[in-house]
């Protein structure tokens, strides 16, 4: 059994969660579309995560679509009392597996009801507005006031407990916070991609969780000689070092590494026990300096 408590906890709205959680996106089929290759294995990964102390799971109805939410419900419902399931709205999948923006009042309301039904919940603990204002995957400035106003109304109706943001710029975070309380921000960040450094520190000062997506590099996990060297010196795996680095980067960082493999899950959870010495941190800084940031 891994001891997740070694990595500590942080607030997610009115919850206190372990800093290592689990991201469910990898449980859907190839391209995050359709059913998993091995359904039983996917259910097992979810059950093992919770059995090992994970109490924060990240999902969305656009994974599959609907597939990961159905797997979560089947594997874990009735849910443990301390489990916080965080979902996201703001996009829909096309029949060709495309990801399309969907943030009208109707689309957001529908998405919240779909998540409630598919997860079999009366209230969604945290809903991230996944900002997709441009057709590209790059973050794009633009007003998020209208969609957040809709989510705040759904929150007042009791369908959502807390609101978060994803794929947003610092300006959009500030704008979002002027509309409603924001409990977490989920952006692309890892050892090699550190654009959000200042945002993370600002959120930490205000007690807001920062949840990096692609903590291991996403679909092509991080690879670098510096990372491999540090891992070897510490008798750890490169992925454990990447996670331990995030844990040490700032106390408000909550991890949601994604995996479809029970062995990788165990490896990732064991990163809670890894402490990186100062020399290792210096070596790892070379990765960002090498152009990955
Ligand atoms: N808000 C957004 O726009 C957004 C975007 C992307 C993701 N997310 C969320 O963030 C979560 C994390 O991102 P992610 O899953 O895309 O990327 P990730 O956690 O950076 O990496 C996942 C990849 O790493 C592999 N992996 C995991 N553990 C490993 C290990 N110990 N050794 C070797 N390979 C390992 C996985 O393959 P295996 O399955 O073979 O382990 C998978 O290919 C997602 O699950 C999702 O919930 C949010």
TrEMBL record:
Keywords: Oxidoreductase. GO terms for molecular function: oxidoreductase activity. It holds the Pfam family Aldo_ket_red. InterPro entries: AKR, AKR_Detox_Biosynth, NAD(P)_OxRdtase_dom_sf, NADP_OxRdtase_dom. It comes from the Bacteria. Residues 19-287 form the NADP-dependent oxidoreductase domain. CDD domains: AKR_AKR13B1. NCBIfam families: PRK10376.1. This is Oxidoreductase. It comes from Advenella kashmirensis W13003.
